[in-house]
Amino acid sequence: MKGGVKGGVNREPAAPVAPVSAVQAVPDASPPGPEQRPRVRVLGTPVDAATMAEAVEAAGVLVERGRPSMIVTTNPELIMHAQGDPELGAILDGADLVVPDGIGVVWAARLLGHRVPERVPGVELTEALLALAAARGYRVYFLGAAEGVAVEAAARLTSRFPGLTVAGTHHGYFGQREEPRIIAEIRAAAPHILFVAMGAPRQEKWIARNLRECGVPLCMGIGGSLDVFAGRVQRAPGWVQAAGLEWLYRLVRQPSRARRMLALPRFAVRVLLDAARRNLL
Ligand code: UDP
User: Fold this and answer.
1) Within a domain: 208
2) Taking CA 130 as the corner, what is the angle to CA 164 and CA 182, rounded to the nearest 5 degrees?
3) Ligand 1 contact via 250 beta carbon (within 6 Å)
4) Cβ(189) – ligand 1 distance below 6 Å
5) Ligand 1 atom with least separation from CA of 257
């Protein structure tokens, strides 16, 4: 499949999603699906104990199966949000794969006695899925971020991942009245993977609400990743990431995040209390 970007509005006739491959036709040969991963619980919410490589493999299986599915990258903020939001709790429970994005989730899971191998940062999982998409000819669609960002990200990513086909893009600032048109555009673009970059939990709720109608095999919320791919936001330097301090870097660069980051100490206290209740400290 040839790579390339088809800008904002897709004007091409509907292209069918590639047929489900041999993975489904020969079940015995298929790699393990996400449901085979151990799923642990942090403050009542699910976390799948998958490595980055396992998450990519599971995502590939979900695309090949062709049924609408959803990956969530979870972090302390999202978990704290879910404590008072049953709708979000149900979405997390129903997700096909929930990977530990934040270092806080890995810390919490381990403290609670679970084996969670490593952090799976959403932006890196997205990059790995884009590489997979380029290699296998999966079309991707970017929905979200400010006007122009998704187009810019798509342009940069198609040169970074030769063979990548971006089937369409749309910014993430729209009202409900525009939703049917956007969904029709996504359906017409027939991507294999839909990346929704509208911030958590807005993007998770949007995906859950529109998953069936979009008819995309794999959907994933990617937060501010399009801003990073478009070069508008810098990720923390490698050593800051390795020290588990990317959250602090983001706070210093974007002080407006301070209020939402209050969820982090609240999360830590809740996890410590939970661990103490279970005699794990
Ligand atoms: N965004 C959007 N629509 C909205 C609100 C936000 O598309 O109605 C975009 C925003 O432009 C940004 C992303 O969602 O690109 C949110 O990034 P943030 O870093 O806050 O998300 P997080 O990674 O923390 O979930």
Assistant:
1) yes
2) 80
3) no
4) no
5) 20
What's the pLDDT score for residue 16? 39
Rounded distance between C-alpha atoms, residue 47 and residue 171, angstroms = 29
Contact 198 CB / ligand 1 (< 6 Å): yes
Residue 11 belongs to a domain? no
How many angstroms is it from 60 CA to the middle of ligand 1? 26
For 126, the 3-state DSSP assignment is: helix
Total tally of structural domains belonging to the chain: 1
Shortest-distance Cα residue to atom 19 of ligand 1: 224
The protein residue with its alpha carbon nearest to ligand 1, atom 1, reads: 198
Q: With 0.85 as the threshold, say if the pTM is over it.
A: yes
What average pLDDT does range 241-261 have in this prediction?
88
pLDDT at position 265 over 80:
yes
Find the domain containing 76 and state its range: 55-277
Nearest by Cα to 170 from 5, 8, 4, 7: 8
pLDDT tens figures, 84-115: 999 999 999 999 999 999 899 999 999 999 99
In order, the DSSP letters of 263-278 are HHHHHHHHHHHHHHHT
Q: Is residue 29 part of a domain?
A: no
Which parts of the chain fold into alpha helices (H)?
Answer: 22-25, 52-65, 76-83, 86-94, 103-111, 122-136, 149-160, 179-189, 202-214, 225-229, 238-242, 246-253, 258-261, 263-277
* Biggest alpha carbon–alpha carbon distance for the chain: 60
- Encoded amino acid at 172, one letter: G
